[in-house]
Amino acid sequence: MKAQQAPSPYQTRFAVDAPVSAGLGALSITGLLLVQKKDGLTDAQLAALNKNDIPKFDRFSAGYYSDKAQTAGDLIVYPSLVIAPALLALDADVRGRYGQVLGLYLQTMLAADATFTMSVGNITRYRPFLYGTQGGGDRNSKISTNSFFAGHTAHTAAASFFAAKVYHDFHPDSKLKPLVWTAAALVPAAEGYTRIKAGKHFLSDNIVGYAVGATAGILVPQLHKKKGRTLSIAPLQGINVNGYSYSGLSFTKQL
């Protein structure tokens, strides 16, 4: 006897979601093309940089540079993009709707990526390491102007918060929810820390990246969540305390 498939909390339509995902993909590509048109800094421009021009709340990391922190950040972000949906596949209820969940995951990551690439493609902000002396040839590279906002942090947050949101929606009564949400919050925070120590992004870049990724991870599944019946009507009959019979309709509103 075949086990009954658990109901999905989401409603998707290929005719709607496919064009939306394609549009987000097109925006991502457009942003990347804009990045390719940016110019790097000349030696004269580098020499003219002054950390006093940086807002005070970001100034502490001006000149930071660390290859180890860069590697640590890469070891968080790239595996997390695979681990997040893989962990969801371990859940039997989610696995029964895995095709739908993967479609939502793709749309989530495309939403985060489109926002990121369009931002770095149109906004020039110098990376923190440029205010020091390290970085070698990267100091003159066009990617050295891509500090706003933190893409690694955004993508990590999108993946982790998506996984937490999907688990939450499939298991709204689970006692593991606080642990799941805490893990979802800590992973991109750790990624943001490595990006600051590596000299790739300022604190504000990471805060914005974190917010963009978390918003995409939560909002995309939420927008696809099924709307429950808010009002139900059923026949009602019985006998009151005085012994009189009654009949009518029962109206129940779901809160």
Attribute tags:
56% helix, mainly alpha
Short description:
Helices cover 56% and strands 7% of the residues.
How would you sum up this structure, described in words?
With 255 residues, this protein is mainly alpha-helical. 56% of the residues lie in helices and 7% in strands. The protein is built from eight helices and two strands. The chain has a two-stranded antiparallel ribbon with strand order 1-2. Helix 6 (151-170) runs parallel beside helix 8.
Mean pLDDT value: 91
- The total beta strand count reads 2
Low-confidence stretches: 229-234
What share of residues is helical?
Answer: 55-70%
Backbone CA Rg: 24 Å
Q: So how many helices?
A: 8
Q: Could you state the order of secondary-structure elements as H and E?
A: HHHHHHHHEE
Write the SSE topology:
Blueprint: H1 14-36, H2 43-48, H3 67-89, H4 92-95, H5 98-122, H6 151-170, H7 177-197, H8 203-223, E1 231-239, E2 245-253
Antiparallel strand pairs: 1-2
Helix pairs in contact: 1-5, 3-6, 3-7, 5-6, 5-8, 6-7, 6-8, 7-8
